[in-house]
Amino acid sequence: MLGVVPVLDDHFLPLLEHVDELSHGPFLSCMATCHSLTIIDGIISGDPLDLKMFEATKWLLQEQGKDKVDNMMPTIVMPTIVKPTTADTYINSDSQTPYEIGIVRQFPFSSSLQRMSVITRTLGAPNMDVYMKGAPEMVVSMCNKTTVPSKFHEELHAYTEKGLRVIGLAWRPLDLKLSWHHAHKISRSEVENDLQFLGLLILQNMLKPETTPIIHLLREADIRTVMVTGDNVLTATSVARDCGMIEPKSRIIHVCASPPSENVQACIEWTESDATTAEGYTQNSKADSIQLKTFTEDIPCSKYNFAVTGKSFAVIKNHFQDLMPKIVQRGTVFARMSPDQKVQLVEELQALG
Question: Is the N or the C terminus of the chain less surrounded, counting Cβ atoms within 10 Å?
Answer without folding.
Answer: C
